[in-house]
Amino acid sequence: MLLSRAGEVARSFLGDYAGILQTDGYAGYNNTGGAGMVSAGCWAHARRYFVDAVKLNKLDAVGINYVKRMNALFAVDGEARDGNMSLAARDELRQEKAVPLVDEIHKKLLAVKGTLLPKSKVGQAVDYALGQWSRLTKFLQYPEIELSNNLAETSRRHRRWRRFSRSWRRASGWGFRCGSIWPMCCRGWRTGRFPKPPPSRRWRGSPAGTPNLSRAQPATMG
Known about the structure:
Layout: H1 7-14, E1 20-22, E2 38-40, H2 43-56, H3 61-82, H4 87-113, H5 121-131, H6 133-136, H7 150-172, H8 182-191
Parallel strand pairs: 1-2
């Protein structure tokens, strides 16, 4: 079967899987896995809808309010991460600090739902969050669930980039003049993920014949 995001591909791949599946709100993941599978949502995707609403209207008080509340929710897990807490300790912290935040977010979502245009950016953000609510709150029942699946998505992008990079280099050499992937190359050199190109392939005009990485912007990873 050709791999794609089609629902039948997800159902075939997951089979009778009975573990935890954390995804965004893509409908292709509905009705997949076995009877015991736990479907968890992603708070980063829910937050992104409100961020997009604020980008469109920087004075959108509703959107700004939810972004701040969701930032506070992520800060709870950030506190656990900074303290190197175990899953059990993080769960205790979540029950103490995250539960009130989640309850307040839910109440506010329900309160504003009928006051917004359904097709507006912030209206779509509210509808998405409420539609995903049962999945978004799974992290309060299962301590091992993260607030978002960003780590998995970033890992997938890196694998896809490596496959593309190998085929692209074979076809056109190093080709570092390609502006669309140049920021990713800079990010790779900074982190040590990619080897620096040989001297003959480096850009000319910068000190020591190397690109000026200090001025390059890192790639946006989604």
